[in-house]
Design brief:
heterodimer, A: about 290 residues, alpha/beta, Rossmann fold, 12 helices, about 40% helix, about 20% strand, globular, B: mainly alpha, two-stranded antiparallel sheet
């Protein structure tokens, strides 16, 4: 499984007073099994890009290939694309509608035309994968659950469709710190266990640094920066002109570097920073 | 697709029409609609159409924008046209089995269609050139005298403000929910009527839940800012009639006279 995006352009309401270029000449590849993090300021085109990747939006020009198959030529069957590419919107808990959790999670697989036995197996697997107890939760109303649990159920609804590519739009938005940590750990577990391509958008630079193999920075609909988290987060000035920042651990490391020139570190996560600081202090002590 | 509905939309601008008091525009629109039913011949419609397009030209709202609002009600206009065409008795022009077209039917159908088109353009000019908030403020002031006989004018105006304010919000919400369910493989386009109606459930349930959430949040936010109804409430921007409104009133009176006179034109 792989994704190739070639010269993607998208213009909102062309020829009307509100004409805006939402995506301009976006190209990138995502190889199998990779985690791609997307960052960008509000209105930079992140959500528009995600919606193109599973055929919800049609580009004004350009192509997208999923596993070598073009999905933008108008010939591809939508159910085939949706089966391969699972998209979880921002605040997905607002899409829940069924009477029980199990039936809500079964909505996607049912739409794909699977038989009863397979649906049940998928639902059970997906609910387990998002860290919930199937027997305990299956007959509850999704509206009775807590915010964090609702979100897990909504994500399970997409996972149950068995996607080979999972796209998450700000999966941790609006959650308290402990739910945030849980969802992040869950996302990592889903990626590792299903062995899929994971694409996620986040405003949290620490999450991006911790999860991504590759990072894309969008600015005004175009790719402004691209590379590994280490490469992208070494461009502090560029990021700041786009009103973006560094992961908090890196901020601290940079602050220490400005006070103590002998300190060398490229840490992005708290653990890396702690390790670098510890070895620096041990060296200083002799 | 859901974004294409222009009915009730505001087109930002700073033309003479935009600057008029909302009350003037509401009265003018009402008067225009009544006049459309006073008109009974070709010359009257010509005058009414010319006057309307003069206002459109002054308002600087692009024609494309105005006609886009018409496409939404095209079916109703077409239906009215056909109904009048075949249902009116009189001098027979054309006859086939049970279908009969009469001379009177043709003229009635044309007049009715033109009347509807002018009516829709006329009222959309009101909403296109008036901010929703000005519109409801104007309406509240106009209805104020009726509060003496127990009409809750402030509450009616507030309900309208809220309804107008949340049309775009709910449309956006609907759009989002439709997309989310499509991403889960939902299909809204195929199947018979029953299946299609059933496929709306995954949209309607989340939409209702969202509406209740929004309503609750709004009520809380209003209460937090000490909202307690219209009694003794003052405004930051009091609306006042200006010179332009006087000019508009004169034009409206002239137009009314011309329209009434047009009934007696025989050429």
């Amino acid at each position: 499984m792989s994704i190739e995006v070639r010269n993607l352009n998208f213009i909102y309401s062309p020829g009307m007073p509100g004409e805006t270029v939402a995506l301009s000449d976006v190209s990138f590849d995502v190889p199998d099994g990779e985690v791609l993090g997307i960052i960008g300021h509000t209105g930079s085109g992140k959500s528009t890009l995600l919606q193109h990747l599973n055929g919800l939006m049609k580009p004004s020009s350009g192509e997208i290939y999923i596993d070598g198959q073009c999905i933008t030529d108008g010939k591809a069957k939508m159910t085939d694309i949706r089966r391969k590419v699972g998209l979880v919107f921002q605040y997905p808990e607002y899409q829940l509608f069924e009477e029980t959790v199990a039936r809500d999670v079964a909505f996607g697989p049912k739409n794909l035309g699977m038989d009863e036995a397979e649906i049940e197996e998928r639902v059970r697997g997906a609910i387990g994968l998002v860290g919930l107890d199937y027997e305990e939760i299956k007959d509850l109303s999704p509206f009775e659950l807590s915010g964090g649990m609702k979100r897990r159920v909504a994500i399970a609804g997409v996972i149950a469709m068995g996607p080979k590519i999972l796209i998450l739009d700000e999966p941790t938005a609006g959650l308290d710190p402990s739910a945030h940590r849980d969802i992040l750990a869950m996302v990592r577990r889903i990626h590792d266990e299903m062995g899929i391509i994971l694409i996620f958008v986040s405003h949290n630079m620490a999450d991006i640094a911790a999860l991504s193999d590759q990072v894309i920075v969008l600015s005004e609909g175009a790719i402004a920066l691209r590379g590994t988290p280490a490469e992208v987060f070494s461009q502090r000035e560029r990021l700041e002109t786009m009103r973006l920042g560094l992961p908090p651990a890196r901020e601290i490391v940079e602050l220490i570097k400005s006070k103590a020139p002998a300190f060398k570190s490229e840490a992005l996560t708290i653990d890396e920073a702690a390790e670098d600081i510890r070895s620096y202090m041990e060296e200083a002590r002799g | 697709m859901i974004r294409d509905i222009t009915l009730g939309q505001y087109y930002p601008g700073d033309s003479m029409v935009h600057r008029l008091d909302a009350r003037t525009k509401i009265i003018a629109t009402l008067l225009y609609i009544i006049e459309l039913f006073v008109v009974n011949n070709f010359w009257g419609f010509l005058i009414a159409a010319v006057a309307l397009f003069a206002v459109v030209a002054v308002s600087k709202v692009p024609l494309k924008f105005i006609f886009r609002g018409l496409t939404a009600v095209f079916l109703i206009i077409a239906f009215t046209f056909l109904l009048n065409l075949f249902m009116v008795d009189g001098r027979v022009l054309w006859h086939w089995k049970f279908l009969t077209i009469t001379y009177e039917g043709v003229s009635r159908a044309f007049f009715m269609a033109v009347r509807l088109v002018l009516l829709i353009i006329g009222s959309s000019i009101l909403t296109l050139t008036t901010k929703p908030i000005e519109l409801t403020d104007g309406l509240e002031k106009l209805l104020k005298p009726f509060s003496k006989i127990g009409l809750p004018s402030h509450e009616i105006a507030l309900m309208m403000t809220i309804a107008l304010r949340f049309i775009p919000t709910l449309m956006e919400e609907t759009d989002k929910i439709i997309k989310a369910q499509q991403a889960r493989g939902a299909d809204f386009e195929s199947g018979n009527i029953l299946q299609r109606a059933k496929s709306l459930i995954p949209i309607l349930v989340p939409l209702f839940v969202s509406s209740f959430r929004i309503a609750q949040d709004l009520a809380l936010a209003m209460e937090a800012r000490c909202y307690r109804g219209g009694d003794g409430r003052t405004r930051m921007n009091e609306i006042r009639f200006k010179k332009g409104d006087a000019a508009a009133a004169v034009l409206m009176a002239l137009f009314l006279a011309v329209i009434i006179a047009s009934r007696y034109i025989t050429l």
